[in-house]
């Protein structure tokens, strides 16, 4: 929302907005002239407001939402506004997938900046090279993430769509994996005939996603018949991969990444394919990928305390956790600890066994209470349920109800040379930051 507000400001709109608490983003918007309200109240929707944009987290019982309805104001979801904005650009790239969206969108950004393309960017994390989560450019090129939750991405109008993966998630909205696959098929169908779909070859039953499409289809992945694939993958001492880029059977160049993990090889292939469709040269693709060193909360090294390396990661889905912990194996350490905070009760219940299995890749697991986000606890589920499954399988897991208890346990048990990863989409990052402050 903050990113879209910035685009509107640059286009001359008068913008106001509200949030639950102050942050660096609200401070930044205030400095740019946005009227910020802390807390949502009906009086925030003044007589000067001509249109209201709201996120998927806002429901009909929200006082500002109700006031806008009473006033008969035009109302758009965030996704509807973003979809309308995309129509103003000749080229619009939308990056979709259960995970990897922020990283891949950021990789595309770095490549386009290396090529001096001056794009407008909306990314779901803080990317240091653009100084935040938004960049307003002057070219006819727009790049954004495309989230499937509440079918938001079906409001988008991309000329190039990217599908990184399709996994079960957001089961508080979708019925099952088939419902999710159907939505991704509809997303792909929004790409015009002149456009292109960049698609992971590993997606099961691929033909069901591509059926009836009129746009070009470009595949990436491990399989021999992929249009874009990686050969000879190797890792440096900080777990950062290099590989030979093969395009339609021909080795064209070598690529070195500035971020760790094999999963980022495939994110980079998707980014390279999307940029190749935009006519970006291989030299600039190489340069951009090497310059990308990550976004906030994606295997982000926070610092060291008592010789313990502290890394923070946004992973909150079993596949993401597995990818992060496999990347960590290549990172220098003695013992690997993970402090995991599950995100939402529905996701935790749906993936109890998968969470336990993925987290077991760490030597020891510390579990925090579930971060409720938009939900209330009606399912009788707890982080202790994950702990029980890890212990039953022979792993080591500990559960604490407060961050203070977690921090004290870490200071007692972690030793020089250990790697500690705080993990989750909630506020678990505070544990590592508090330890560093100590």
The assigned structural class equals alpha/beta
Rg, alpha carbons: 22 Å
Question: Helix fraction?
Answer: 25-40%
Task: Specify the biggest β-sheet.
Answer: 10 strands, mixed
Number of helical segments with 4 or more residues: 15
N-C termini distance: 34 Å
Task: Give an overview of the whole structure.
This protein has 15 helices and 20 strands. Helices cover 33% and strands 24% of the residues. It has a 10-stranded mixed beta sheet, sandwiched between helices. The protein has helices spanning 2-10, 24-31, 63-70, 78-86, 101-114, 177-188, 206-210, 263-277, 282-291, 318-329, 345-350, 352-359, 383-392, 403-413, 429-437; strands at 16-19, 35-38, 52-54, 75-77, 91-96, 120-127, 132-135, 141-146, 160-163, 196-200, 216-221, 228-235, 241-247, 250-256, 300-305, 308-313, 336-340, 364-367, 397-399, 419-423. With 438 residues, the chain is an alpha/beta fold. Helix 5 crosses helix 8 (263-277) and helix 10 runs parallel beside helix 12 (352-359).
């Amino acid at each position: 929302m903050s990113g879209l507000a910035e685009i509107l400001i640059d286009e001359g709109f008068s913008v106001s907005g509200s949030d639950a608490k102050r942050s660096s983003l609200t401070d930044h918007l205030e400095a740019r002239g946005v009227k910020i309200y802390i807390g949502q109240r009906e009086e925030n929707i003044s007589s000067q407001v001509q249109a209201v944009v709201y996120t998927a987290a806002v429901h009909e019982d929200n006082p500002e939402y109700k006031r806008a309805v009473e006033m008969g104001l035009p109302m758009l979801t965030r996704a509807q506004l973003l979809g309308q904005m995309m129509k103003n650009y000749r080229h619009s790239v939308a990056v979709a997938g259960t995970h990897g969206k922020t990283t891949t969108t950021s990789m595309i950004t770095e490549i386009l900046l290396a090529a001096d393309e001056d794009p407008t960017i909306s990314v779901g994390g803080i990317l240091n090279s653009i100084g935040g989560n938004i960049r307003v450019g002057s070219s006819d090129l727009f790049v954004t993430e495309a989230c499937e939750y509440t079918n938001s991405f079906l409001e988008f109008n991309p000329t190039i769509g990217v599908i990184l993966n399709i996994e079960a998630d957001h089961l508080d909205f979708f019925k099952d994996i088939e419902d999710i696959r159907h939505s991704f098929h509809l997303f792909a169908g929004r790409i015009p005939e002149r456009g292109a779909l960049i698609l992971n070859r590993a997606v099961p039953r691929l033909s069901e996603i591509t059926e009836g499409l009129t746009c070009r289809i470009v595949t990436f992945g491990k399989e021999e018949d992929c249009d874009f694939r990686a050969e000879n993958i190797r890792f440096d001492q900080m777990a950062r991969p290099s590989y030979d880029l093969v395009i339609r059977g021909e080795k064209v160049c070598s690529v070195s990444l500035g971020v760790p993990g094999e999963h980022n090889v495939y994110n980079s292939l998707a980014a390279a394919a999307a940029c190749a469709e935009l006519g970006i040269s291989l030299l600039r693709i190489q340069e951009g990928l090497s310059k990308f060193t990550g976004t906030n909360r994606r295997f982000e090294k926070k610092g060291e305390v008592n010789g313990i390396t502290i890394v923070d990661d946004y992973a909150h889905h079993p596949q993401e956790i597995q990818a992060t912990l496999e990347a960590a194996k290549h990172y220098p350490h003695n013992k690997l600890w993970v402090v995991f905070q599950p995100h939402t009760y529905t996701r935790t219940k749906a993936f109890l066994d998968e969470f336990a299995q993925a987290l077991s890749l760490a030597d020891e697991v510390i579990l925090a209470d579930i971060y409720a986000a938009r939900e209330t606890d009606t399912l009788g589920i707890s982080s202790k349920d994950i702990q029980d499954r890890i212990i039953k399988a022979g792993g080591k897991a500990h559960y604490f109800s407060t961050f203070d208890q977690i921090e004290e346990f870490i200071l007692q048990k972690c030793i020089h040379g250990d790697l500690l990863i705080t993990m989750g989409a909630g506020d678990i990052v505070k544990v590592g930051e508090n330890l560093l402050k100590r």
